[in-house]
Amino acid sequence: MRRFGDPEGLVFHRSLGVFGCPGLRKDVLLVSLCVEVIATRDLVKTYGAASAVAGFDLDVAAGECVALLGPNGAGKTTTVEILEGLRVRSGGSVTVLGQDPQNAERAWRARIGVVTQLATDLQFATVGEAVDHFARGYPTPRSRHETLELVGLREQAGQRVATLSGGQRRRLDVALGIVGRPELLFLDEPTTGFDPGARRTFWGVVQALREERTTIVLTTHYLDEADTLADRIVIIAHGRKVADTEPHELRSRVPRDAVVRWRDDQGVHELATSSPTAAIARLGAEFDGEIPGLEVTRPSLEEAYLELLGDIA
Amino acid sequence: MTVLALSWRRVVFEIRTTLRDRNAVIFSMLFPLFLLVLFGSVFGHQEIANTRVTIAAYLVPGLVASGLLYSAFQLLAISATQERRDGTLTRFYLSPMPRSVYFVGKLGLSVFVYIVQIALLIAAARALFAVRLPSGGGWWTLTWVSVLGLASSALLGLAMSTGAKTVNSASAITVPVVLFFQFTSGVYFVYTDLPQWMQRLAAIFPLKWLAQALRSVFLPARFGHFEAAGTFELARCAQILGLWVLIAVVLAGRTFRWRPASQ
Asked: What is the ipTM of this complex?
C-alpha cells in the first residue's frame, strides 16, 4: 500500500522537479500536493458487546477515489458515518481534512459532501428549489445550473422531487452533496436497487466529479462498481480490512488459469488450463468443426473478491 | 448568508412545501373551523343562561387553544418524527447550515399555520354566528398568549418527536395527549364543572392557562366570575405559560436527537 507522508512512498518526478507519490500528474500536484485527506488509525466502533468496526486503518490522498467494498453488515456504513462526523467512535484516531470529525464545526462541514443511503426527504420541493435551498449554507456554492448539469438533472429542475425515478432521486442527492464544491465527497451505496442503465448513468456522474479532482470515498457491495470507479479498493469484512489494493492487483491474486467449457453427449465439461488455445485446437479436431457450447472464461474480479472473503470466513 | 437570512429562507421553504401537501393543509389548517361549524350548527345560536353570549361564541377561545396545539405540538411532533426517518435531519446535521435554522423553520411553520387557522376560525365565527371580535386590549392579550403558547407547545412537540420511532407512533402518542388536555383543561367542557382532582391535574399543564387567557380575549369581562378563581388571572397565566416555555426549552434541548435510534 502506498502510504503518503512516509519518505519511502515518495519518488522524485524529474519532469515536475518535485518529490511526490508515484503516478503524480502535474495538474493533480497543483491542486493537492498529495495531501492526506483522511487518516484513521485503529478505528473501533462497538455497540454493547458487538463490534461493528474492529481496528481499521484508512488513508486517502487528495484526488483519490477509494471504494470501501464488503458484504452487507461488514461495517462500511459505520466507518463512513464516523468519518462524516455522524457517529461517535469507540476508539482509535480519525483525521478528516485536518480535523477530528467529532468536533467539527460549520467551516469543516462546508468542505465535505455526503450522500447518505435512502434519503426520502424533500418530497414536496422541486429539484431546483432543493438545490437552491441547500446551496445557501455554503460560502462559494455552485450555481443551480452547474450543479444540475453535472448530475444530469437540468431538465428536471422544475419537477417535484416526489415524481423522480429512483436513479434521478439519487442523482439529486448527489447534487445536494456537491452543490457546496466539497473537497471530499462520501457516497454510501449510491446505486443499490438501480437498473443497469441507471447505474451506468450514475457512474458517469461520479467520473465527471473525479475529473474535477474531488476526493471520493465510495461504499458499495458491487464489485464492478468499485472496479469501474475507484483507484483503490479497500475490502472490509467483519469490521476489519481484508485487502487494500488497486483493482488490477486484486485480479492478479487469483490463479490466471482460464476455464474452457464445452458440451457433448455426457453433459458439460470444464477444463482449467494455462493454455486454452491449445485445448480448443485439440477439441476442434475432436469434434470436427464447431465445438458445442464452447466458452472460455478468465477468473473475474468477483472470483478474486469472493476468494478473499472466503479466506476470512 | 447571515443566520437571520438563512432562517427566513428556511421558514419560507417550510411553508411553501407544506402548503403543497394537501392533507396537511386540510387537516391542520381547517380543523378548528370544521369543529366550529359542526358544534355551532347543532347548538351554536343558543344563549348561555341570559348572558347574551351564544354557545358558538363560548367555543371560540377553546378552539383557538386547540388550533394552537394542532399547529405547534401535534404538527411538529409528527413532522420532526417523519423528518428523522426520511433523512431531513441527517441532511441538515451534515450540512454547514447552523442547527438553529432548522428550529426557526419549524417555529415559523407553526406560527404560519396557527395564524391561518385562527384567522379562518374568527372570520367564520363572525360571519356565521355573529361572534364579536376581541377589543383593543384583547388583541394584545391574544398576541402574548399565542407567542408563549406556541413557543412552549412547539418545543414540547419537538421533544416528543424523539420518543416516537415512527410517524404512526408519533400520532398514536400525540392525538390522545392532545385530547386528554382538551377535555381536562376546559376546552370542550366548562373547566369549573370538572371534578376537583381533574382541575388540579390540568392546572399543572399549560393548556388550562392558555384556554383561560383566551377566554378573557373572546368573552365579555363579566365571564371572569365563572372562572375557578373568580377572575381570568392574566398575570398568573403569563407566569405559568412563561415557566412552561423554559421547561420546554430545557426538555427539547436535552432530548432532541438528530439521528434515529441506532439500529
From this structure: 0.87
